[in-house]
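User: What would this chain look like folded?
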Amino acid sequence: MSRPGAYETYVTFLALKNHFTTASYDYFKYHGKLNTKKETFLKRKDRFFYQKLSRKVSRNELLPHIVSNILAGKKWIREFTDDESVETRVRYQKVEESLTYTFENEVDNLFTVSGPREAFRSVDGQLPPVMIEFISGRLSIQTLVILNSMVKFTSNLDKQLEDDYIWSQYSMLVDKYQPFLHFDTKKFQSIFREKIKDFT
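Assistant: Here's the prediction, encoded as structure tokens.
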């Protein structure tokens, strides 16, 4: 099993953190590269944690490990090195492996709560039901991104809630995560149409 080195782990972590927390940096546009030097990394007091993480994951696991834990709200490198961080990655990968099942069930739950027409609407400046379900943990980021690819609800909410800082953070999260998720667009559009028929 190929493992990343500590410096590779550091660069990947920093690039992904910048991708999700800043509007200007795009992990894909810049191919995960940053203007960093190994000499600078070797002087960091926290380099032990990058060494620890590099021994905990394979090279193939590094990106989903960091992404899944960033999505879980973790910020500091030490939070990415414990057993809980591994459990977070495993749960994340299980959702991606059963994406169709997850999407169908979560859309069923969403439409049971609000109905297809109301699910994506903001009323009186409040977040719509789809976002309430996401924030509550009943709807995954994967389902949220797939739904947005079809309904484009974030574009409407960006206009309606343009002065809402909390919404702006969620909007950026959806936008930033989207390129990490790979799915069959036609397949999920078909599922979505059937779900709308079931609930109307």
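The first helix runs from residue 6 to 21. If you want, I can go into more detail on any region.
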